[in-house]
Amino acid sequence: NVGTTAGQRRLGAAARSQEHAMNDSAAGRPDAGLSTFQAFTGLSLDEQNILDQADRFGQKELLPLASRMDDEEWWPTEIFPKIGDTGYFGITAPSEYGGSEMNMVASGLVLEGFSRYNHALGLAWVAHENLCLHNILRNANDDLKKKFLPDMIKGRIIGALGLTEPGAGSDALGSMSTTARREGDHYILNGRKIYITNGPIADVLLVYAKTDKSRGAKGISAFLVEKDFPGF
């Protein structure tokens, strides 16, 4: 387990304690406690501990799933809740939502540790954690954060991002044809998206659509679309 305090994930807390202890025992040495690998990569003891923990989790929990996922296009439904329970979702999110209150460096280290053993799940993780969850954290209003973030951080619902279209790939924003038209207190979206990581299994998708074609890329908005919405 990554570590919990009063029910809140504290990713890296053990590493910080270890770092202080090693520094105290070897005061005056700028490289005290650093392995040759750490000195080469520039990772702190805290960061190295995060990577090591993610590496161990990946080897134990994700590697055994890799072959079947690749060979059968199979999705292990139990893995996201297990990742959530261990504290590997919501890396950058505040503790009020159940997050770890860390930075994007920590998020990247977790991705590195996971992808070393299961590249498919590494990609699914980053689509959920960074493209959807972190995007909601940064840009959504408080009501949407409260609705989606706790369950996403626990791995109870899966997120994805819908941007690429059949005719809009490398120029996804400029060539986008999906539109959103306001009707009363909601929007009607019309369009197609392809190559959506987590698309077949996602419960909520952050979908980009044009609300004002005359403004080009600046006339694009993001919408949270749930899998049971009519017409989806």
**Based on DSSP secondary structure assignment, what is the total number of beta strands?**
7
Helix coverage percent of residues?
Answer: 40-55%
How many domains make up the coordinates? Answer: 2
| Binned strand content | 5-15%
Order of helices and strands: EEHHHHHHHEEEEE
Low-confidence stretches: 1-10, 12-30
Estimated structural class: alpha+beta
- Tell me the name of the CATH homologous superfamily of the largest domain: Acyl-CoA dehydrogenase/oxidase, N-terminal domain
Region (Disordered): 1-30
Cofactor: FAD
Domain Acyl-CoA dehydrogenase/oxidase N-terminal: 46-155
Keywords: FAD, Flavoprotein
Structure, explained:
Residues 46-155 form the Acyl-CoA dehydrogenase/oxidase N-terminal domain. Its cofactor is FAD. Keywords: FAD, Flavoprotein. One of its GO terms (molecular function) is flavin adenine dinucleotide binding. The structure is a single chain. With 232 residues, the chain is an alpha+beta fold. The protein has two domains: 9-157, Butyryl-Coa Dehydrogenase, subunit A, domain 1 (Orthogonal Bundle); 159-232, Beta Barrel (Butyryl-CoA Dehydrogenase, subunit A, domain 2), CATH 2.40.110.10. It contains seven helices and seven strands. It has helices at residues 13-25, 36-41, 45-72, 79-86, 104-115, 119-139, 142-153, and strands at residues 4-5, 8-9, 159-162, 179-183, 186-190, 204-210, 220-226. The strands form three sheets. A three-stranded mixed beta sheet has the order 3-6-7, covered by helices on one side. A hairpin with a 2-residue loop joins β4 (179-183) and β5 (186-190).
